[in-house]
Amino acid sequence: MFQGKVKLNARFKRTQIEAFVESEDARDAAEKLVAQIGETASLTIHPGTAATAARLIGTAPLGDILIVELGAALGPAMDRIKELKEAGSRVIAVGHVNDIPTYQDVLDAGAQEYLPLPLGDRQLQISKLLGSVAPDTRTKAQSRCIAVCGVSGGLGASAIAENLAVAYLDAAGSTKAKGDLQNRVALLDADLEFGSIAADLDTDLTMGLLDALLVPERVDDTFLTSTMATPLDGLYLYSASVNDPSSTSEMEANLPSLLRRCRQSFPLTVVDLPRSLLAAQPELAEELDDIIFIFGPGFSSVRNCSRLVERVSKSSNPPRFSYLMSKRRRGAGLTPAEVKQALNISDLHELPESASDLARASLKGQPVRRISKKGPYSRAITRLMNDLEEPVNLGPKSKRKGLFGGKGHNK
C-alpha cells in the first residue's frame, strides 16, 4: 500500500478466490465452493498445484483465498502451503488422499481446511472454510479504480489520466523500495476507437486489450503483465484501437469484468473513460471508486457535466465525484465561482493551459510530469491526487439545485 501522505482507500466488493488445480475433481471442488458462497465471491482458476501458487509469491498478487491441489508429492506440498501461509495467504487444500494423518499434516502446515476429493454432493461448511477474511488480507490499494472522463472533446482528459497515473506512481516510489510489487499502476485507455494514450507515450498499441475484452474470463495476472506495455518503470498500459467497429459494443460490455480483474493485479487502475461510454453504460460507475469529470469554462461543457453527473448518480452504488475545470478551451470564460454555483458543488480543481509543457511532452512522448515535474500543470495534478486521498466527507446534503437543475454530488 502506498504510504506517507497518499493513503489509498477503497471499497471491498467481492472475495477473490484463486484456484491452482490440475484435476477435474479439484476444479469441481473450487466451483462448488464459490457456488455455495454466492455472488459475494469470484473465482479464477489456474492450472497447477500448491507448488505453482508458491512460485508466484513475490512476483504476482494473489487472491483473498487460495484453493490449491496437493499433487502427487505430499511432503513438498506441505512445505509450499507453509510458504503460502507465511506470505499471508489464506489456503484451502484439496487432494485425493483421504486419511487422518494427511488431514492433520495439511492443517499443521497452515491451511484453513483440507477437502478430500471428490467432493460429491457433500455440503461444505462455508463459515469454517472462509473464516473471517480480514480487511487487510488484500491491501486497500488492490481495489482502487479511478476514472477520468472528459465531458467534451479537446479538454486533455487523456493527458490528465496519464499524468495522474504517473503522479500516483511517483508517490509510491518516494516511499517504497524499488522493485516492491505495490509500486506499480495500471493505465487503461477505454476509448476503443480513438484512444490516443499509446501514441502519447510513444509506445506500440497493446492488442492484448482487445483479446482481454473479448474473453475476459481467461485473463489472469500473467496475461495482463505479458500483454500490457510498460512505457515507464511500474506503469502498465492498455491502449488499442479496434479494426472492426462492429465488435466495439461487445468489448465495451465486458469492460466491468476487466476492471475487476485489474483490481486483483494492480494497486491502482486509472481509466481514461470516454463520455459516450459512460453515458451509454452508467452502471459502469459501480465498478469505480472515483470519477473525475473534466470540463471547460463554457456553458455547454458545464451543462454536459451536469447531465452526465445526474445520469451516473442514479446508479445503485455511485462512486465519489471530483470536478476539474480545464483551461485548454476558454469557452464563455466562466469563473470558478460561477461553475460551482452552476453545478452546486463546493470543491473545484483548475488545470492551467500549460500549452508549452504539453507540446514538449508530446514531442518527447512523455507525460508532462516527466519533463516539468514542478511546473503548474504537474502541481495541479498533484493537488488533485492529494484531494482524492482525503476521506469522503458526506456532510449535510444541500437541497439547492444548480443552475442546470442538477443537485450536485460533493465529496
What is the topology, as strand order, of the major beta sheet? 8-9-7-10-6-11-12-13
Secondary-structure-derived class: alpha/beta
Shape: elongated
Extended strand count = 13
Low-confidence stretches: 1-13, 131-142, 175-181, 393-404
Radius of gyration: 23 Å
Give the oligomeric state.
single chain
Task: Tell me the major beta sheet.
Answer: 8 strands, mixed
Taken in chain order, the helices and strands follow as EHEHEHEHEHEHEHHHEEHHEHEHEHEHHH
Helix segment tally: 17
- The residue fraction in helices comes out at 25-40%
Query: Whole-Å distance between the termini?
Result: 23 Å
Q: What is the mean pLDDT?
A: 81
Strand content: 15-25%
Biased composition (Basic residues): 397-411
Protein name: Pilus assembly protein CpaE
Region (Disordered): 391-411
InterPro entries: P-loop_NTPase, ParA/MinD_ATPase
Fill in the keyword field for this structure.
Pilus assembly protein CpaE; 5-stranded parallel beta sheet; ParA/MinD_ATPase; 8-stranded mixed beta sheet; plasmid; 17 helices; nucleotide-binding; 13 strands; alpha/beta; 411 residues; 38% helix; elongated; ATP-binding
